């Protein structure tokens, strides 16, 4: 089987194709004007102003494209690098891993509660785990991290009477459903909105509604399947393959039974650790900073649609942080760093809705989160900076793809053919109406994701054109972002080029063909549901759309 080229190589081919197009497509231009949308300036094409001009075929300018793309999208690229570095520091503290393990222990205790004997506790446990992973996918784009948790949830699902598919579904599938319905994911929504020229994380309310619907549907599907398997295990398509996990669960059970209660290590003992002084120092500094901000900004004006509401949000957040932060620091390092992550999200929402934060402010917020979580872990500033650079290196390829993909637009603009393409597509799509146009954008993004699984690369490649295309056919750019978001998210669960999917299936010992056969009908349902969720944005005026 011929190897599929990497994302960077594919974008290089597209750059060359764009240069060739400048030799065959007539030149044309729209007149453009600057508009201010919710505090963000953006250039829009003036409808009816298209006219043909002399083309300028491109040759050696293809070698300028990466440089020009980096210059044009410097803010987005720096944003990606800073956020990637910050999360690398946080992940190095293992706080999220510890949080998931603590949650698993909590769900196991729930199963043992006599008060819940009239409740299907196992189903409740699966639902809670799915909500957690879906939130992780929606808020910070959890994807690769799911691989590490397969070794936890597959054996757990099998021991509960389910199968390995259920174990993969409650973590990997849930995270990617949340990823598709993302609300605050900086690596997809943040990049796409930044490139489309709309305020970062605007339209949060409707996206939250979409996330609720998608997550509820995913939970319903998994619980329906899990109930069938528990009733008759042999109907599971992985029943024979799961013999490995059943034997492993049996051996663990025997080992646990054979262990003397007096020598067994209790969960509390195994997970307890002495909290160093560093978290208390970081807590005190952050509390002081928040109190000062609350004094200078006692009231925050939240704008929702045409209305506004004045609330003392910063004093409330400062008070909540001060009261809960000390407890988190006393509990454990992981609890404290998860506490920092939680308040980072709360301040992000407050800043976006109340103060019009954009890329610079949000980048700084995540950077503070990363540095503080690293210092709280006692790593020292030098080690924290090393970790930050490691995170930057890890995210460097997607950042370079953003620059190169922006170079495609540079080639088409220099050749004076991008407006000709927009004009031709908009004239053709005008015949299909708004619903048909949204459908075409959605299908294009969905199919593109099968060969280019990088969300940041797709955003850089498609949103500059999709945003302008939406203007010309009188669609909200926010709807174009939603089409990208759903198109980028759902098919991640079957994309054969996805290293995350192959890694998950490898750990769970599930063949790709069997996984595809199991998930494709549900995936098709999600794709249709995604299209239906986009339709209301065409007919109703939601905040941010």
Summary tags:
two-stranded antiparallel sheet; mainly alpha; 23 helices; single chain; globular; 6 strands; 545 residues
Report on this structure.
By secondary structure, this protein is mainly alpha-helical. Helix content is 71%, strand content 5%. The chain is built from 23 helices and six strands. It has helices spanning 7-24, 65-72, 74-92, 95-112, 121-140, 146-159, 164-180, 186-196, 204-231, 243-258, 267-271, 278-296, 313-331, 333-355, 359-376, 380-414, 418-430, 433-451, 455-472, 477-489, 499-508, 512-534, 536-539; strands at residues 27-29, 32-37, 40-45, 51-53, 300-304, 307-311. Strands 1-4 form a two-stranded antiparallel sheet. A two-stranded antiparallel sheet has the order 2-3. A two-stranded antiparallel sheet has the order 5-6. The longest helix is centred in the C-terminal third of the chain and has 35 residues, at 380-414. It is globular and about 75 Å long. The two termini are 44 Å apart. Mean pLDDT is 82; it is low at 255-274.
